[in-house]
Design goal:
- The chain is an alpha/beta fold.
- It folds into 2 domains: about 250 residues, P-loop containing nucleotide triphosphate hydrolases (Rossmann fold); about 270 residues, Class I glutamine amidotransferase (GATase) domain (Rossmann fold, 3-Layer(aba) Sandwich), CATH 3.40.50.880.
- The strands form 7 sheets. Strands 15-13-16-18-26-25 form a 6-stranded mixed sheet.
- Helix 1 packs parallel to helix 2 and helix 1 packs across helix 15.
């Protein structure tokens, strides 16, 4: 089990690295995180919803992702309430006290999921959350030492040296553990080190002499690694400085000239913001997160990602002035000016419509109707049942943003509440769907008759879709970027590399190579008992 001294020390990446290393060594490996708090989620082949980080770890391990790898997923909806996903399905919405009262039931579910994984694999690598030394949370926790004891797993403790004070964090964590918990910690990893690791030797020697726990590796700071790290924090929780840091690191080719400026709207309770990661890896494409109207500027493309709370996101867009500024850019007052292309994904698709209706009280009091941005002639009606399924689709409306890719295949997944239909329609009349659905796996009964997805306006430059992963397909990604670029008069054409960027598999291979060079893999094998 990999635990950490705090959140965001790199536990998720370390699990991914070890999954890849041991998979390459011929072992059947699986990741596991009993409880994940994240707004980035994915759908497995059975239609079960799970944290995105465990999907990446499953890819590193060379196995299909399954909700057993993340039996509990908490998706925050408000300061004191989350949607609780258990064994891939919505369990309910509850605050901490109610959730904690159901711990005995949850312990059994976690135990059964872990047992199934262990029966099918040689090695399960478990990820903790936050810190095992959170004194106020230790009683009744379901994700750190309680799980290490359940699995009888040795623990490797990770600390982040980049934030400073790593030795204090490591020693302090060990001091706050109970004796039996501390005995489980068989090694530590220092993560995100910049510079010459030999300069750390005096500190490493002191730590080992002080605690008796060996340092099993020093991982370097990997600046341009395009793999999602720990994903428990939504962008609304990040400061403006963090947003600036995201912007500075958003281009995978730091020396290149910005060709396209993509503004992504940092919505409250934003979900699946990793949909934009493939764009960040393209040469000359700058993806910047925007949470103020004054910072929107005049981008080449606007993207509104998903959100766990569409109604609240609409209120925030309007109060912040972003709604008005977006509308001005998409439909400029100067009729001769070209409007800014815009893409809405999932909750972003709902936001682009004329209204959102919540008759069942899913997000707001029953009967609530909220005006959208009015950029697409559709209305969303929330429903209590959640759609979660893998999707295969084809481009069927090759206009504007999708020019030149008729029939292109793409894969993705849907995670949403309710349906989006033409405004004022009582039935399901033809809608300008940009995508034809070839298959929906794990679909809900209410979706069985739907053969299309999304909406493309009459100009072709306003696109809404429920398909997460739309940018993962290189042909479609290149077409969208090239179409946006074609509206500019100051460029010759798209780079030849667009649509062929390095995928996550090559990034995982690189991570594993660095891990082999930086970690004492023989010692870790000994700790694991291999």
């Amino acid at each position: 089990m990999i635990q950490g001294t705090a959140s965001n020390v790199g536990k998720s990446l370390l699990v991914s690295a070890l999954c890849r290393v041991f998979h390459a060594d011929g072992l059947r490996v699986a990741p596991f995180k009993s409880q994940n708090m994240s707004l980035n989620s994915f759908v497995d082949a059975d239609g079960g919803e799970m944290g995105r980080a465990q999907v990446v770890q499953a890819m590193a391990a060379g196995v299909p992702p399954h909700s057993d790898m993340n039996p509990i997923l908490l998706k925050p909806e408000a300061d004191f309430r989350s949607q609780v996903i258990v064994a891939g399905k919505v369990w309910g919405r509850m605050g901490f006290r109610e959730y904690r009262s159901r711990r005995p039931e949850l312990v059994g579910i976690i135990h059964d999921s872990l047992a199934r994984l262990r029966a099918r694999h040689d090695l399960v690598i478990i990820e903790g959350a936050g810190s095992p030394a959170e004194i106020n949370l230790k009683d009744g926790e379901l994700v750190n030492m309680a799980i290490a004891k359940m699995a009888d797993a040795p623990v490797i403790l990770a600390g982040d040296i980049d934030r400073g004070g790593v030795f204090a964090h490591l020693v302090g964590t060990l001091e706050l553990l109970e004796p039996d918990e501390r005995a489980r910690v068989r090694g530590v990893i220092i993560n995100k080190f910049r510079g010459d690791a030999t300069l750390l030797r005096p500190g490493l020697d002191w730590f080992e002499a002080r605690t008796g726990v060996p340092v099993v590796g020093v991982m370097p700071y990997l600046r341009d690694l395009s793999i999602p790290d720990e994903d428990s924090l939504s962008l609304e929780d990040r400061t403006s400085n963090a947003l600036e840091a995201l912007d500075a690191a958003s281009m995978s080719h730091p020396g290149s000239t910005t060709i396209l400026d993509v503004a992504a709207i940092a919505l409250p309770h934003m979900s699946n913001f990793d949909d934009l990661d493939p764009l960040k890896r393209e040469e000359g494409v700058r993806v910047r997160w925007v949470d103020r109207a004054a910072d929107l500027g005049s981008p080449d493309l606007i993207i509104i990602p998903g959100t766990k709370t569409t109604v609240a996101a609409l209120a925030w867009l309007k109060s912040s002035g972003l709604a008005g500024r977006i509308s001005e850019l998409v439909h400029p007052r100067n009729v001769r000016a070209l409007g800014t292309p815009i893409i809405g994904i999932c909750g972003g698709f709902q936001i682009l419509g004329e209204a959102v209706e919540d008759n069942d009280g899913v997000e707001a009091p029953a009967g609530t109707r909220v005006a959208g941005l009015g950029l697409l002639a559709v209305t969303t009606a929330f429903a209590g049942e959640k759609t979660t399924c893998l999707v295969r689709a084809q481009v069927r409306d090759p206009r504007g943003l999708l020019a030149g890719v008729r029939g292109a295949d793409l894969t993705g997944y849907e995670i949403h509440m309710g349906q989006t239909l033409p405004t004022g329609a009582n039935t399901n009349p033809p809608i300008p769907h940009p995508f034809t659905i070839a298959s929906r796996e794990g679909r809900t009964p209410s979706d069985r008759d739907q053969t299309g997805d999304g909406c493309l306006d009459e100009t072709g430059w306003i696109l809404g879709t429920y398909l997460h992963g739309i940018f993962d397909t290189g042909q479609v990604r290149r077409a969208i970027l090239a179409a946006v670029l074609s509206r500019r008069a100051d460029t010759l054409g798209p780079p030849a590399s667009w649509g062929q960027g390095t995928g996550i598999e090559s990034q995982l291979d690189r991570l594993a190579t660095v891990a082999r060079a930086s970690l004492d893999i023989p010692k870790i094998r000994e700790i694991v008992g291999l």
